[in-house]
Specification:
The chain has 114 residues and is an all-alpha fold. It has a domain at 55-113. Helices cover 92% and strands 0% of the residues. The protein is built from 3 helices and no strands. The chain has helices spanning 3-17, 21-43, 47-113. α2 packs antiparallel against α3. The longest helix is centred in the last third of the chain and has 67 residues, at 47-113. It is rod-shaped. Residues 59-93 form a coiled coil.
Amino acid sequence: MSEKTTDKIEKTVDTIAGAGASDKAEGKAQELLGKAQHKLGTTLEDPELTARGVVNQADGQVKQEVGELKSDLEDLKERAKELLGDTAEVIKEKAHDAAEAIKAKVHHTKDAGQ
């Protein structure tokens, strides 16, 4: 499978299941592969296969953590958007209130001067 195709699949999975989902799934698969390699290497007394299993387990765990971080970052991004939206709304309301107060004072000053 080409790298472009793999990237498209990962983006699609992340879009459907949430940010980092493809990393978490890939990481879990790699971790499970590593566990199997480690057990098989130990059983067959093959130190190279055992070591490869340990490395794959660690790589898989790292990929899962990367997926978690991506998911957490996406959550933070969404929360920041919400907060900024709320803040912007408050600022608009305050600006509107201030403009109305100024209009009222100008109108009152004009009425007092006549």
